Amino acid sequence: MLQSLPEGTQAELIYVYDVLLPEDFTPRNQDGEVGEHRIARIEEGRFTVDASIATLDCLLRRRWIDADVCEGIAALYERPAV
């Protein structure tokens, strides 16, 4: 991830992993950080940029959403201009 911030340039390499869980697994919120997941929050700008990218990457790879509903998604996979 490469973006300009008021404090300077943010350059991060984000690793995304899928964790396969048993079908009967039920997550429990134990630390209060995540109470629910809602895809609309990405569109509302309520996710951080890196969380949005990781979430969309998973949704696309698993074919839970189509790339054609994600306008501009291809730009995430392009090398940034120098």
Share of helix, binned: 10-25%
CA-atom Rg in angstroms: 15 Å
Helical/strand content category: alpha+beta
- Poorly predicted sequence stretches spanning 5 or more consecutive residues: none
Number of helices: 2
Global shape: globular
Order of helices and strands: EEHH
Physical arrangement of strands within the biggest beta sheet: 1-2
> Which percent range describes the beta-strand content?
5-15%
Structure, described:
The structure is a single chain. This protein has helices at 40-43, 49-61; strands at residues 2-5, 8-11. The radius of gyration is 15 Å and the shape is globular. 0% of the residues are buried. The protein has a domain at 47-82. It contains 2 helices and 2 strands. It has a two-stranded antiparallel sheet with strand order 1-2. By secondary structure, the protein is α+β, with helices and mostly antiparallel strands. The chain starts with a strand and ends in a 21-residue tail after the last helix. The longest helix is centred in the last third of the chain and has 13 residues, at 49-61.
